[in-house]
Design goal:
The structure holds two protein chains of two kinds. Chain A is an alpha/beta fold. Helix content of chain A is about 70%, strand content about 10%. In chain A, the strands form three sheets. Chain A has a five-stranded antiparallel beta sheet with strand order 2-1-4-5-6, covered by helices on one side. Chain A has a four-stranded parallel beta sheet with strand order 3-12-11-7, sandwiched between helices. In chain A, strands 8-9-10 form a three-stranded antiparallel beta sheet. Chain B has two domains: about 1-235, Purple Acid Phosphatase, chain A, domain 2, CATH 3.60.21; about 240-360, no CATH class. Chain B is elongated and about 85 Å long. The chains are: A alpha/beta, B alpha/beta.
Chain lengths: ~775, ~350
């Protein structure tokens, strides 16, 4: 690659400057401040564009650094040749990258070319701007001694895919970060943290180590307790059978006692019964109560007979009254009826007296009214006659008018008279007829009333006569004032007389004295069977005595019979031989056994309570164990994670190891040419061998001195620049074996001593044979070759 | 007469191997509720007894919810007799020394114990190191009875006298057993015992982890008490089924294609949204294969109750493709593959790691 020329329109302090270059060494000499470094920078910028955008420092930001002092757009053109073709790069730069322009043209055809990107340096040299600055370009402020880049290494190794080596550093960095992130030794490392957690979890597990044993101990204790419970339950079962035996024993004793009581009771009741029989002293036939029933019946019969006779016998008073009646009243039955009728007749006559007076008063009133009616009839007849006369007279007058006189007066007078006569006749003639009829009716009623009065008088007189006759017939004088009471007394006496006669007849018909005497004899003989000899009057008392004794016998018998029944029932329901046998299964009483049972129950309760306590404690332990199991799981998980991450870390380390090995293997391919080149250029400058200098696979240079290798960085500035310059040229030789790039060196010998400076000049001359060299220097006059 | 034979309910299992804390808690409750449902099934189908052949509980510690649910379920169905045999997981169980056990709950001990249920003899014994062999050798039921035997342990044909859990099947042959009800194995298994009967493991009532995939439930026994014939039927009863589905992704080199293959494979299994599915990626994939299992797991998440994607693929490094590669990458792969001190698996991991880093760093 060769730069042919360039035109700087504006760039830094340079303005409208043109430069042209030849093959081989081009020395650009000028004093300081004339723009040598700006020109060198212009060439680099033409190839790679501006660097440092975004940096504030003007020295770093090329856009700021090379912005023309007068301001405005800056840039220029550069013509170069590579691979046999010539190109023109045109670039302008604004205040920001967006305003930059880039154009590549074929210098021969002046057509726009797409052979390279806007960074032709990268395309032509296969290295980036940084690597460019570390190899073929030595700028004003560039450290001549610089390290290689992956780009350089890749180019050195002639690797087809240069990006691989570019990525090595990134991959290595990534692996390093991953390893740091996983690190087991860094506090921030995952494995370190996991190990910390594992330690804590192990501490927790160690603290819980005794839990299983404690749980086991509780479990064992529970087993013992359960065994003891079983033992106590067996004892309790034994006590249950013992309790049953004791219960049977107590029952037998109780039954035996019951039987003794029943036997005693039976005996006592038997004695009582016999005593009652003795007291009764019955010697008759059959049962002791048989004759009592007969006596009772006979006595009742006797009483009934006595009673039947006692009810119909006349008393002395009755007998006296009967005698008196028999002497006075001949026909008591007829007299009874007559006295009753006479008494009724008197009462009726008394009632007719008041009726008689009423009728007589009514008769007087009717006779007075009849007289008045007669008088009224007479007056009415007179007026009726006057009417007739007036009528006749009037008729005569009217007739006279018509017949003879024709006098109106006659006619009028006659009419008036006829009229008045008709009125009188009508009014009084009808009235007179009514009065006459009323008078006839009154007279008829008067006659009828007189007849009734006469009939009543006859009835009253007849009743008096009948009463008088009845009393007189029974020897009683008639007195009008006492007749009624006398008749009532007579009636009562007749009634009593008739009753006494009837009673006397009844007694005569019911006389049973002989029968009673026979009954008394029989009853007395029956009483004798009970050892009694009562008179008839003592019969009821004796009967009561016997009855009481029989009741006593019956009661005693019933009680005796009940006792006998109970005893028999007991004997039927019990085995008396077993009951009376003396072969008890146990000597313990029920109370003894119950006491023992209560003791066992208490112990069982205590054991079960202990079991409950242990169960709860075991549950706590189990809960803790579960928590420990979870901790153990977590621990296992963490340990697995550690293992996994350690494995990953190990794989990463191996990956790094083999990746680094691969990189070194690649770089080792250019070690020979690099070492040879370094020795060649070192010899040109110093005239001596470079045997003390060693270059490793990472292009690090060391100096062998006093048996040890030391970094070339420790050399003096002059030697450091010398070594760096030799290394750069050696790398250019190794990197570009076909078309060589141009070498741009902006005062690379400033730190060289005179001897090495001369060597440097030799190096330039020699290198110029292969490379186009743009050498900028302030030593000598500034000339553009 | 009808009996239910179940075992290995493992109530109150922690279930935290795969599931999150919340899901594990929910599944624990589901396991307990499934026992309640089992009892309800028994009641609806006029079942006379439920045989629980061990490991009803996962540990000695039983939560109050589970304890109450179990006891109440039993108490609420006095018409059903419950025969609870303890297993190796619940040898220490809350029913030990429990004062108020329901009258219809019958327990077993370290010696043979028999219960009569409507003319059927139900035997059981809890095996341990001290009694296991002796109990098995001494077992002698009356052959004229209908004999159902409950045990918890691992069947063997040869006998393993030192192992408490070993059940020597030969010792139970020709002893007049009509049905040997076993527990301990978590998968349903039914084998002939002798000429007249079978022995059976019902498996877990509910699968818990992906190692317990497949159908789970109980065995329904229908016993003819006249002639002793026992008809056994497996009844799937799990609330959720578990599927472990291998998907061979050999030859695929990107997540998109792998996910498509997984979806395609899952469409062929009878899983429903309430089930749990584990996808196991198998096969050999290229070391440069782009495979995001987290993405696949996340995108399957809504299809099922729980999804897990497990990568069990092996890496294949195509060394030939790097032989002429003059890049750092090529040199790296060649140097790793040439390292004799590394195992092939390790080489694959390093290469994979390196290539991942190359692709991540631009």
């Amino acid at each position: 690659m060769k730069i042919i020329s360039c035109h700087i329109a504006n760039f830094g302090k340079l303005h409208d400057e043109d430069f042209s270059f030849t093959s081989g060494l081009n020395e650009i000499k000028a004093n300081n401040g004339r723009g040598k470094s700006t020109l060198a920078a212009f060439i680099k910028v033409m190839l790679y564009g501006l660097e440092g955008d975004g940096k504030k420092d003007e020295l770093v930001s090329e856009r700021k650094r090379y912005n023309p002092w007068q301001g405005g757009t800056f840039g220029g053109t550069m013509t170069f040749e590579t691979a046999g073709k010539r190109y023109i790069i045109s670039r302008t730069f604004g205040n920001k990258p967006a305003l930059d322009t880039f154009e590549l043209r074929d210098a021969d055809t002046n057509l726009v070319s797409n052979d390279f990107s806007d960074k032709p340096g990268e395309d032509i040299f296969r290295i980036n701007a940084e690597s460019f600055g570390r190899t073929v370009f030595i700028g004003q402020d560039t450290d001549i001694f610089s390290k290689t880049t992956d780009d350089i290494n890749a180019k050195l190794g002639n690797i087809t895919d240069a990006m691989d080596l570019n990525r090595f550093a990134l991959i290595d960095e990534k692996i390093k970060n991953e390893l740091n992130s996983l690190s087991a030794t860094r506090k921030t490392g995952e494995i370190y943290k996991l190990k910390d957690e594992v330690s804590e979890l192990k501490a927790v597990l160690r603290a819980g180590e005794g839990t299983e044993a404690a749980a086991e101990s509780v479990r064992a204790r529970m087993e013992e307790t359960r065994a003891e419970i079983l033992s106590k339950q067996e004892i309790k079962a034994g006590l249950t059978s013992l309790k049953k035996a004791a219960s049977r024993r107590e029952k037998r004793l109780s039954d035996r006692n019951t039987y003794m009581i029943l036997s005693d009771e039976y005996k006592a009741k038997e004695d009582s019964y016999r005593e009652a029989l003795n007291t009764l002293s019955y010697s008759g036939p059959g049962q002791y109560s048989d004759n009592f029933e007969v006596i009772s019946a006979k006595t009742a019969e006797l009483s009934k007979l006595r009673l039947s006779m006692a009810g119909v016998e006349l008393s002395a008073d009755e007998r006296a009254r009967l005698d008196e009646y028999n002497g006075r009243i001949v026909d008591p039955s007829g007299t009874l009826k007559a006295s009753e009728a006479a008494s009724h007749g008197l009462i009726a006559a008394g009632a007719r007296q008041s009726e008689l007076k009423s009728k007589e008063s009514m008769l007087s009133d009717l006779e007075f009214e009849h007289d008045n009616t007669i008088q009224k009839g007479k007056k009415t007849g007179i007026f009726a006659g006057l009417g007739t006369c007036g009528l006749l007279l009037g008729a005569a007058l009217i007739l006279a008018y018509f017949l003879a006189f024709n006098e109106t007066v006659l006619l009028i007078s006659g009419g008036i008279l006829v009229f008045v006569g008709i009125v009188f006749f009508v009014l009084f003639g009808a009235r007179a007829s009514v009065v006459r009829r009323d008078g006839d009716m009154l007279l008829s009623r008067i006659e009828k009333l007189k007849g009734e009065i006469d009939g009543i008088n006859e009835e009253i007189e007849g009743a008096g006569r009948f009463a008088s006759d009845t009393l007189t017939a029974n020897g009683i004088l008639y007195n009008e004032n006492t007749a009624a009471s006398d008749l009532k007394q007579l009636y009562s006496d007749c009634f009593d007389h008739l009753n006494l006669l009837k009673k006397q007849e009844t007694f005569r018909l019911n006389d049973r004295t002989e029968e009673c005497d026979r009954l008394v004899t029989v009853i007395k003989s029956l009483f004798a069977d009970y050892g009694l000899k009562p008179e008839e009057g003592e019969f009821p008392t004796c009967l009561a005595v016997i009855n009481r004794k029989i009741d006593a016998c019956n009661t005693a018998y019933r009680l005796f019979n009940d006792a006998l029944g109970r005893k028999a029932d007991f004997e039927n329901s019990h085995d008396l031989s077993e009951l009376m046998a003396d072969d008890d299964e146990t000597e313990y009483t029920l109370e003894d056994v119950e006491s023992m049972e209560a003791s066992v129950d208490n112990k069982l309760k205590e054991l079960k309570e202990n079991l409950d306590i242990d169960r709860r404690q075991l549950e706590d332990f189990m809960e803790r164990l579960e928590s420990l199991e979870e901790t153990a799981d977590t621990l296992a998980s963490k340990e697995a994670s550690i293992k996994e991450k350690s494995e990953l870390s190990s794989v990463l380390e191996d990956t790094r190891k083999y990746l680094t090995g691969a990189k070194e293997s690649l770089t080792a391919r250019y070690m020979g040419p690099l070492t040879e080149g370094f020795a060649k250029y070192y010899g040109l400058i110093t005239g001596g061998p470079a045997s003390d200098y060693m270059i490793d696979a990472n292009t690090e240079i060391t100096v062998f001195q006093d048996g040890l290798q030391h970094s070339a960085l420790l050399l003096s500035s002059g030697y450091k620049d010398l070594v760096g310059l030799c290394m750069r040229l050696a790398m250019a030789d190794a990197m570009y074996r076909e078309e060589k790039p141009m070498l741009i060196m902006d005062d690379p010998f400033v730190n060289f001593d005179d001897s090495n400076f001369a060597g440097g000049r030799r190096l330039l001359d020699k290198a110029g044979e292969e490379y186009q060299i743009l050498y900028f220097s302030c030593r000598g006059t500034g000339q553009n070759n | 007469m009808k009996l239910i034979h179940c075992a290995d309910l493992h109530l109150d299992s922690r279930l935290n191997t795969n599931l999150s804390r919340d899901l594990a808690s929910e599944r624990r409750r589901e396991l307990t509720e499934n026992f309640k449902d089992l009892v309800a099934y028994g009641a609806e189908n006029s079942v006379d007894g439920i045989l629980i052949c061990g490991d009803m509980f996962d540990t000695a510690r039983v939560t109050a919810f589970t304890r109450n649910t179990v006891i109440k379920s039993i108490e609420d169905h006095p018409e059903i007799a419950f025969y609870l045999l303890k297993g190796n997981h619940d040898s220490e169980c809350f029913v030990d020394g429990w004062e108020d056990l329901p009258d219809n709950l019958f327990l077993f001990d370290k010696e043979w114990r028999a219960y009569d249920l409507k003319g059927v003899k139900i035997y059981g014994a809890e095996l341990n190191e001290n009694n296991s062999l002796r109990l098995q050798q001494d077992f002698a039921p009356d052959p004229s009875d209908i004999n159902i035997v409950m045990l918890h342990g691992q069947e063997t044909e040869t006998g393993s006298k030192d192992k408490a859990e070993a059940i020597n099947i030969r010792l139970f042959k020709n002893k007049g057993i009509n049905y040997l009800a076993l527990g301990h194995v978590h998968e349903y298994k039914r084998e002939t015992l002798d000429g007249m009967s079978v022995y059976c493991y019902p498996g877990c009532l509910e699968g818990r982890g992906f190692d317990e995939a497949g159908d789970h439930g109980f065995v329904l026994l229908d016993i003819d008490t006249d002639n002793g014939e026992v008809r056994d039927t497996f009844v799937p009863f799990a609330k959720r089924k578990i599927f472990a589905v291998p998907v061979d992704i050999t030859g695929l080199d990107n997540t998109y294609d792998i996910f498509s293959k997984v979806k395609d494979t899952l469409s062929g299994i009878p899983a429903t949204p309430k089930d749990m599915v584990k996808v196991i990626l198998t096969g050999e994939v290229d070391v440069e294969c782009e495979k995001d299992t987290a993405y696949i797991e996340k995108n399957l998440g809504s299809d099922y109750y729980f999804t897990r994607v497990s990568d069990e693929t092996s890496l294949k490094v195509n060394l030939q493709s790097f032989m002429l590669d003059e890049t750092l990458k090529g040199e790296f792969v060649r140097s790793v593959m040439a390292a004799e001190e590394l195992s092939e698996e390790r080489k694959a991991r390093i290469v994979r790691m390196g290539l991942d880093l190359f692709s991540e760093v631009k």
